[in-house]
From TrEMBL:
Stored InterPro entries: FAD/NAD-bd_sf, HdrA-like
Gene3D superfamilies xref list: FAD/NAD(P)-binding domain
Protein's UniProt name: FAD-dependent oxidoreductase
Sorted UniProt keywords: 4Fe-4S, Iron, Iron-sulfur, Metal-binding, Oxidoreductase, Signal
């Protein structure tokens, strides 16, 4: 008996020895575009960070899922997404004909994207990456969390103050007890005029993409006939201009991304129930067969037998490791972003744009092959800011969500799941998670301005002003004044999109700045009553206000400004106190002398007195 107890004791001691408890500041679960960006930003902010990815590659949808042609945010390439674009360009710089234009559509081979991300993360101090590491569970640990992972055949525990759920389907937040909604929201629920009358459980179709390689005219790369294959399912492709589809989806090294929408394509209709853990295996099997049938049809019926599946993924059927998932369920956050926050951000009671942690210019997708799904008639869709409160899970301290689980309505969600948008957003999420860990605070105490300042320090953006590029010497001042709301953007429709412009050379109107200046500064009301500026705000008005706020002698201030106008501030127009002040001049001097960005705001964007 004693020997048996001794054996059991030694067995448990060995098991305990294999298990490990790891302490860190931030843990990011999910190595997709948002997860990689969140982990890099957190680590660069000097927080010990661990990135957990269940698969062998980083990049999620854009590598493991092969969604590797990125059209969105190319006119707003900032921060870590701009750095990723540059790293891809460097990877292919010797490739003849590769388009390295600043705002070109980004195209890359999935395996190349994964390689670039791995090499990038390997160079980041404070960051540990664990590939092929499944997430098992999560539970509260005081104000932090305990995360369970499977590593080398046993379960390890990671203790962290902040957790970022960057999984494709919100699995971490689900296990943590977050509350979700899914499908089409009703107009009654959200107050959105574009919303449907009744809610539904329908979500956007997923697509199991494929990468084909041209092996030459003489090659025959025809795959075995897939299980359940039916020619009729793909017959409508005979009417499609397949050559044009292939030309538009061309990658590098004679490869093509197969992402055909609609009849006979890759799309596979799902609801959130189909994506539950217990249903995923069957859903994914059917989606893969849908795509394999498409490939077989292209090869046997349309004569493309020379196009064979790329072998870069290492899977048995040579399809990507994961599907491209456009939508699932959305967590309830500290705020919920609605479509009005995109179209009329400055006219709402809440001012969520003031709490921005990232920018986007993607048009919402509407990918449904099921007949009768409501079609939303979106007006030209503006570029917009993504609010901090939408990535923070309600009633769950220090738990952040990205990918498809953001706290937004269905109408907004379709524009946020593109990898280019997610990488931009991920940087902001990493800054927020890092802030909580660094200052030992919870998400109930988030300091919007300090988090935004960190994002700007590391090259990110808050406002989607497409006419103020990152290289502009006044970029930061304009970003900060824009985020304060003192000077707002102008929407300019362009097809199905709308640019947001700052228009730096136009004049400042008194009526535009007076209400907020009165709200921000106690002495502003007295100054406006005394000065009575005209319809257009002049250089004299601005200098008078600066003099009032800084208690500087007016004559001295004017003399200093005249001397510094072009040499220091690099303004292009001559110093003339009588002329209207431009928006650029106002932003730069306001940011320096009375700094509206320093006024704290809550998560709804309202000023904190």
């Amino acid at each position: 008996m004693f020997k048996k107890l001794l054996v059991l004791f030694l067995f448990f001691q060995c098991a305990i020895g294999y298990a490990e408890t790891i302490k860190t500041d931030v843990v990011v679960i999910g190595g997709g575009a948002s997860g990689v960006a969140a982990a890099i930003q957190s680590a660069r902010s000097n927080l010990k960070t661990i990135l957990i990815e269940h698969g062998p590659w980083l990049g999620g949808s854009m590598t493991s899922g092969a969604f590797c042609i990125l059209e969105n945010n190319r006119n707003l390439p900032t921060g870590l997404y701009a750095e990723f674009r540059q790293r891809i360009n460097n990877y292919y710089k010797l490739r003849l004909g590769y388009d390295t234009t600043l705002n070109a559509v980004l195209r890359f081979e999935p395996s190349a994207g994964a390689s670039v991300l791995k090499k990038w993360t390997d160079t980041v101090k404070n960051l540990t990456v664990k590939l092929n590491t499944p997430f098992v569970g999560i539970k509260k640990d005081g104000t932090g969390w305990e995360v369970s992972i499977t590593a080398n055949g046993h379960t390890d525990i990671i203790k962290a103050r902040s957790v970022v759920d960057a999984t494709e389907l919100g699995d971490v937040a689900t296990k943590a007890g977050a509350i979700f909604n899914t499908g089409f929201d009703s107009r009654k629920d959200t107050g959105e005029e574009l919303a449907t009358t009744n809610p539904t459980n329908q979500i956007q179709d997923l697509s199991w993409l494929a990468v084909l390689k041209d092996y030459g005219k003489a090659a025959d790369k025809t795959i075995p006939k897939p299980e359940g294959y039916s020619t009729g399912k793909y017959a409508c492709l005979k009417k499609a201009e397949v050559k044009k589809l292939l030309a538009a989806s061309q990658l590098i090294n004679d490869k093509y991304l197969i992402n055909i929408e609609g009849c006979g394509g890759n799309q596979y209709s799902v609801t959130s129930n189909d994506l539950l853990p217990e249903n995923r295996a069957d859903t994914y099997k059917q989606a893969r067969l849908q795509t394999l049938g498409l490939i077989y049809y292209l090869q046997t019926e349309l004569g493309y037998k020379n196009l064979g599946l790329s072998e870069e993924f290492g899977t048995t059927d040579h399809l990507p490791l994961i599907p491209y998932i456009r939508e699932n369920k959305r967590a309830y956050g500290l705020v919920r972003m609605v479509i009005g926050d995109v179209y009329t951000p400055y006219d709402r009671g809440s001012k969520l744009y003031r709490t921005s942690i990232g920018i986007a210019d993607a048009v919402p997708g509407q990918h449904y092959i099921t007949p009768g799904v409501p079609k939303i008639n979106y007006p030209p869709f503006p570029a917009y800011s993504i609010p901090l409160g939408a990535v923070v899970v309600k009633d769950q301290d220090n738990l952040f969500v990205t990918e498809k689980a953001l706290s937004v309505t269905h109408l907004v969600n379709g524009s946020m799941t593109d990898p280019a948008v997610q990488m931009t957003l991920g940087q902001g999420v990493g800054a927020a998670a890092g802030w909580c860990a660094f200052y030992k605070k919870t998400t109930k105490e988030l300091d919007v301005r300090k988090i935004q300042d960190e994002i700007l320090i590391y090259g990110g953006s808050l406002m989607p002003f497409s006419d103020i590029p990152k290289k502009d010497s006044d970029y930061r001042a304009i970003q900060q004044v824009g985020a304060s709301g003192l000077l707002t953007g102008y929407q300019k429709p362009n097809g199905n999109r709308a640019e947001v412009l700052f228009m730096p050379d136009t004049v400042v109107y008194t009526a535009d700045i007076k209400p907020l200046m009165n709200d921000m500064y106690a002495r502003a009301f007295l100054w406006f009553n005394k000065t009575q500026p005209g319809e257009v705000f002049t250089v004299t008005n601005l200098l008078s206000y600066i003099s009032e706020m800084s208690l500087t002698d007016p004559a001295t201030l004017q003399k200093v400004m005249a001397a510094a106008w072009k040499p220091k501030y690099r303004f292009t127009k001559n110093f003339d106190p009588k002329r209207p002040v431009t928006r650029r001049e106002f932003a730069v001097l306001a940011n320096k002398y009375f700094n509206p960005f320093s006024r704290e705001v809550d998560l709804s964007g309202k000023l904190i007195n």
